[in-house]
Each structure stands twice: as C-alpha cells, then as structure tokens.
Write a structure and sequence with these properties.
The chain has 275 residues and is α+β, with helices and mostly antiparallel strands. Helices cover 25% and strands 21% of the residues. The mean pLDDT is 93. The active site is at residues 2-3, 60, 264.
Length: 275
C-alpha cells in the first residue's frame, strides 16, 4: 500500500499541483532515500534548476519528468507527497522541494522505506527498478489474456503469488489481487498453471475492471493513504473480500475467510471462490 490506483491518483494530483514549477532547492533529511546518485549533494546539484514538465507512473512508481532527468519515486508502505502549507514540517518530512514561485512540495514517510532514483531522460526504463517490471494492468495493450495465459503456463506457483510478482504484472498489490480473484471466482491458492484459457481471459478482464473502478474512486484508503491534496479514496467502500474477514459475502452470504497465501494476509469467499 499504496498500489497502482492510489499511485495513479497521486500522479494526477501532483500533475495539477507541480506541473510547470521550477526547482530552486532541495533539502534531504534522510539520505538513505536517495538511491541514485548515492550522494545527496550530487542529487541536489542535478535537480536544482530543473522544471517539472509532467508526472508519469510505471506500476507503483511515480515519474517526475524534468528538463534533463526523470526522478523515479517509490512510496512503498507509507510515503506521501503534499504541498506545504503554513505549518512547520513534522519529523516525518524527509525531502523538501522548494520551487522558484515560493511554494514547496514535501515528501513524508513514517517508515522511511520510500526511494528516489534520478536517471538521465530516456534511461529510466533501461535500468532498475523499472527495467524488471511487467506490463500494466491498466491502459496497456500488452496486458492481454494471451499474455497472461502464457505466463501462467510456465509456473507452478499459486495464482496470487504470480499476480503479486511485479515482473509479471506491474502495479498489482494485496488489495486488488484479492478483489480481482473474487470477481473472477478463483481461489487465491489455485495453481496458476491449471487455469483454463477461458478462466484466464475472465481474470484478465476482472483485473482491468477492478483497476479502472479503483482509479475512478481515487483508490482505497484502508491505512494512511491520501492524495497530494490530503484527500482519501473511496474504493474501500466497495471492497468485496479484502479486510472483511468473518463478514457475510455481499453476493452469497457465506462468511469471508482469511488465510496466508504468498506470505500475505489473503481474503476470499469460500462460496464464490470454490476449489
């Protein structure tokens, strides 16, 4: 958390808030977040004087497209961006971008797990962490039923493990994997290799539909997620299984169950998702 829908929502918000702004200075209070270059002073020198032309996204990564560079930012578990108000920065503010118009963008992260990589423009997709990402489940023509079926036939893993693998599909996380599998009527621990082409085609559609609906609702605020304006998402109000352990299924009334699959807390309906 945040997953693709939340990052997409943050991207759209940041585009409105920072598009066209020139960076005057950068203050980094937690140097470990800056992964490339691994020297904070060098990072500052390269970024200062650059203008943010647009904000992009690849999987769960935000891409700040500057004049000469692309800043790749991963929010991880608790990262968030916000435009500074009159209040002083708190102890969780680790990176501050000062703009020439007097405004300021702050990166806050309670757990300090977030990362930032700075690449020369055009090289970001050729290097880690973006190089290893699979196709997008949202607005990507490469993500087809045929692609997904080919990938699933090559593995002995369970379906949830495969869907969480960013090398297979970029951007899916625990919440939306559980929801898409519910919509497709597939148990999370089902062997991926054993799914029929017809069932895989259905799963591909349900993944895309779930992503589109979640983006439309601004993502799911099940923990601390807010967009760049400090606003929460609303898709959590439509969740069918995630976080509803013991509650009746909205479709068949069977109590939702929770177990551990792929090392993650996993929610499913034993009535709608049968073996």
């Amino acid at each position: 958390m945040p997953e693709l829908p939340e990052v997409e929502t943050v991207k759209r918000t940041l585009q409105e808030l920072t598009g066209g702004k020139a960076i005057r200075d950068v203050e980094v209070n937690w140097p470990k977040m800056i992964k490339k270059p691994d020297d904070v002073q060098a990072f500052n020198q390269l970024v200062c004087g650059q203008t943010i032309h647009r904000i992009g996204r690849r999987g769960k990564f935000l891409l700040f497209h500057l004049d000469d560079y692309v800043l790749v930012s991963h929010l991880r578990m608790e990262g968030k961006y916000e435009m500074a108000g009159a209040e002083a920065p708190d102890k969780h503010t680790h990176v501050r971008f000062y703009f020439t118009d007097g405004t300021e963008l702050r990166y806050k992260d309670v757990r300090k797990f977030g990362t930032m990589h700075l690449f020369e423009k055009g090289r970001q997709e050729q290097e880690l962490p973006l190089r290893q990402l699979g196709p997008e489940p949202f607005e990507d023509k490469q993500f087809t039923g045929a692609y997904l079926y080919r990938r699933l036939r090559k593995t002995t893993r369970d379906i949830k493990t495969v869907l969480l693998d960013q090398r297979e599909i970029a951007g899916l996380g625990n919440i939306y994997v559980d929801e898409a599998l519910f919509q497709a009527g597939i148990r999370p621990d089902a062997r991926a290799q054993g799914l029929s082409q017809k069932r895989v085609n259905l799963l591909r559609r349900r993944i895309t539909e779930t992503m589109e609906r979640a983006v439309e609702k601004g993502g799911s605020s099940v923990r601390s997620y807010v967009n760049g304006n400090g606003e929460t998402g609303y898709f959590q109000l439509e969740l069918n299984v995630y976080g509803r352990n013991g509650e009746p299924c909205r479709h068949c009334g069977t109590p939702v169950e929770k177990n551990i699959t792929a090392g993650r807390g996993t929610h499913y309906c034993p009535g709608c998702q049968r073996r």
